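DM between two lab members

TW: hey, do you still have the Vacuolar protein sorting-associated protein 41 homolog entry open?
JB: yeah, one sec
JB: this one, 359 aa:
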Amino acid sequence: MMQVVQLMMVDCKQAVNLLIQNRDLIAPSEVVSQLLNTRNKCDSRYFLHLYLHSLFEVNPHAGKDFHDMQVELYVEYEPKMLLPFLRSSQHYTLEKAYEICDRRDLLREQVFILGRMGNSKQALAVIINELGDIEEAVEFVTMQHDDDLWEELIHQCLHKPEMVGVLLEHTVGNLDPLYIVNMVPNGLEIPRLRDRLVKIITDYRTETSLRHGCNDILKADCVNLSVKYYNEAKRAVCLSNEEDDARSKRDASRASQVITPSVRNMEVKSKTRGGGRCCMCFDPFSIQNVSVVVFFCCHAYHTTCLMESTETNSTNKKGTGGPSEGLYEYEYEEEQEDDNGSEAGGPRMRCILCTTATS
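TW: and the structure you got?
JB:
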């Protein structure tokens, strides 16, 4: 059996590192047992503290069975490390830890343990009456997200003028300062009350100005994005098969994007409202070997159907004496250069159904 105590007495730091690195060969329970049952005249509890502390830093769960013991060891040898340990570990008994901290008057540790136990009001009383730190009290109440706790904080500070003043400074954004002022007893002299009220009003104006500015920026962004989305939604996407590459290149000026899928997956990639069918002839796209134009409104057409519809409308308008400039009114539009670098004044293909519905 390895003599842990002898190694610790030779060089405790090197021994701890050696034991941590070889914890698979000698279990933490064995190390703790040897250190607790040693008969040598040495500070075995200090060695135990060094070992468990190093073990916790390497693996917080490796020595979870000894975390109650670690609370006592931290209090005895390294009190400053107790609070980080309490925050990191989930394997110690809250009641035992609170009793130990209460005996040693470790107030901040008591506050943390009481908060974890759910005794928020008692923890707040310790902060105000024992620590006298109103800023920490405000931070504690803010983290609890409990409106009743704010009321408790106000009531405990009402008869302490300095705390009322500090409370007014640090509750902006959490409580209405006017509510606190109305609850202050008549005749209570609050130090530097005028300066604090001026600061509260200034902070409130700054916060209001920032909110208005953020709202204006948000509204402007919404409008700009809506306009951009509207312009993008008016564009068409041309879907063509490999045999129609030449034709798709000729129509590239009218389409915003050219995609060359196979006939088999064309219907899958063009999930339109027509269920993979042309919105003019209602034939499935897969049975005709022609290009397909899809709009962002999810309407899709065979290119031939779209052109025939254009010619039909043009003939009808000429027969009725309509102006020739309006023949492509629903099909093209004049726009300025957009974000994608489209030329100004270039024709844009538009959805017949949507344009007709809105006209």
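TW: got it. Residues 234-358 form one domain. The chain has two domains: 4-152, 234-358.
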